[in-house]
Amino acid sequence: EHTNTPASRVCCIMDSKIIISMSDQRWKDMRDSSVNVFKISEPLVTHSAVSMSTFSLTLAATQKMALQLGISSASGGLASVAGGLAIAAASTVAHHSSSTLAYCRSTGKLPSINLSQVTAKNTVQYLQTNSKEIVFDIVLGIAVFSMLRGGVRSVLPSNICHPGAFARKYIPAINGDKYLSGVHREPLQVIYKRFGCHHCGIKKGKMIGDHMPPNKWVHGGKNEVAKITRPWWQFWDRSKPPQRFYPQCNPCSLIQSDAVRNNKKILKFHWRGIFGFPSLAGAAVGLQYLNADQ
Fold this sequence. Notes:
Layout: H1 6-69, H2 77-107, H3 120-129, H4 131-147, E1 158-159, E2 171-172, H5 182-195, E3 207-212, H6 215-219, H7 222-225, E4 244-249, H8 250-261, E5 267-268, H9 272-275, H10 280-286
Antiparallel strand pairs: 1-5, 2-4, 3-4
Helix pairs in contact: 1-2, 1-10, 2-4, 2-10, 4-10
C-alpha cells in the first residue's frame, strides 16, 4: 500500500530526479553520438558529391563536344579513343575539384586565382608537378568506370542508325526483315529492362525490336548495302550482313525512321551514360583527398 507520508513524498521526488537525470544523460549521449556521426560522414558526403558532380558535368560537356564534331559511339576505334579521353578529362576535373575542396576546408579560404597568370607555360608546369597524381586518377577513373559496366563508348552520343551507346546485348533477327515476333519479344524485353534503349538508355515505355543494320540498308539494293559500316578489314565486302534485334524506345524509333528515310546522320545525346551508376568513378577519384582537409 502507498502512503502519503512526508518520507514517501521525498522518495518519489528523488526517484523522479534520478529518472530525469538518466533521461538527460541518455539524450546527451545520443546528441554526442549524432554529432560524431555527422563529423565523420559530412566530409565523405561532401567530397563524393563534389567530385561526382564535376565528373558527370565534364562528361556532359565532352558529349556535347563530340556531338558537334560528329563523333558517336559507332565511330569505331575513334569512339574508344574519344570515350577514353572524355573519362580521363572528367577524372582530372574531379581530382582538381576535390583537392581544391580539401584546401578550402583546411585553410578556411578560397584559393587565389589570377587569370592573367594562367598561361600555357604555367599550365604545363602544373601538369608536370602533379603528373603522378593526375595519371593515377585517370587510370583509377577509367578502371572504376569500366568495372561499374560503363563502357568508354557509353559517354558518347549514339548514332541513331547504328548500334547505340547502350548496345550491350541483342538477339539474332532470324526472320530477316520481319518484325519482332511474340516468341522473341520476351528475351528482348529482359534486355530492355536491364540495359534500356540501346540509343538513349531509357527503360520505360513501350519496347520496340530495332533491326540493326536497318531493313532499308540490308534489303534495299546495292546502294543501300554500301551504307553499312563494317570493320576496316572488311571494307571490300558488300554482301548482306546478318541482322540483330536491339531493344529500342518509341521516341528513338521515330527519330531513326526519319533518319533512315531521309538518309540523315542524327546523333542522340543521352544522360544515362553521364549520371548513371558508373559516375561513382568520380567519387572514387575525389575520396583520395578526404584526409587532406582534416
